[in-house]
Structures are given as C-alpha cells and as structure tokens.
Amino acid sequence: QVQLVASGGGLVQPGGSLRLSCAASGSFSRLNTMGWYRQAPGKERELVARITSSGVTNYADSVKGRFTISGDNALKTVYLQMNSLKPEDTAVYYCNTKPSVGFVQYDYWGQGTQVTVSS
C-alpha cells in the first residue's frame, strides 16, 4: 500500500509560480517512478511530468521549459515547480505512482490539489 498526499495548489495570476508537493508513505521503502497528472473540467486526465528514481524526467510538451519535477532518491517526496503559469494550466493536479511487486503492478493516486490561474 502507498498513500500519496498532494498539496500546494491555489489561485495564482498568469505568469506566477506555484510549487506542488507529493508526500508518499506506506509499505514501499522506495518508489521507482512518480508522475504528476492534471485534469481540467471537461477534459481527460493528462500526464504533466514524470521522474524516475535515477533522476530521469519527462514532460508534456505544453509545460516544457516552465515546469520542473524533482524528488528525493526514494521518491518519497516529489515536487512540481510551476513557473510562468497560464490560464490553460488550470486543473486539478494529481500525483501518481505505479510500483511493481513481481509481475503485479499497483496504481496509486493522491487526492488532487486545485490549481487556478486567473487574473
């Protein structure tokens, strides 16, 4: 079992910044990957950024150069630094991890944190 708690969302003006945090706890001593997803009203959930325990990152094209994902070596705490925010970044942001045990893959989600970019 893994529990994920996301925090750091809020209301920010266009061009502003926010830092989201995801704290993981549970039976896994380390996680191999952690991702941030977002879902805007009426849209499908989409991957924003992902990081592996070796530090490899990947980003959605829409956030490259503006968002940075980082975390500790065990990925028990992962951050999403969001700069130059745009109204289209408005969404509920979720952290997610998919640890595996043998051939079984698990899928855990945080509760989501609202990010609203508006003047």
Total number of helices: 0
Radius of gyration: 14 Å
- N→C terminal distance: 40 Å
* Residue runs with pLDDT of under 50 for 5 or more positions: none
Portion in beta strands? over 45%
- Would you tell me the structural class of the helices and strands? mainly beta
Write the layout of secondary structure elements.
Blueprint: E1 2-7, E2 10-12, E3 18-26, E4 33-39, E5 46-52, E6 57-59, E7 67-71, E8 77-82, E9 91-97, E10 100-101, E11 104-105, E12 108-109, E13 113-117
Parallel strand pairs: 2-13
Antiparallel strand pairs: 1-3, 3-8, 4-5, 4-9, 5-6, 7-8, 9-12, 9-13, 10-11
Question: What descriptors fit this protein?
Answer:
119 residues; mainly beta
Summed up, what is this model?
It is built from no helices and 13 strands.
Fold and architecture overview:
With 119 residues, this protein is mainly beta. 0% of the residues lie in helices and 54% in strands. The strands form 3 sheets. Strands 2, 4, 5, 6, 9, 12 and 13 form a 7-stranded mixed β-sheet that branches. A 4-stranded antiparallel β-sheet has the order 1-3-8-7, with no helix packed on it. Strands 10-11 form a two-stranded antiparallel sheet. The chain is globular.
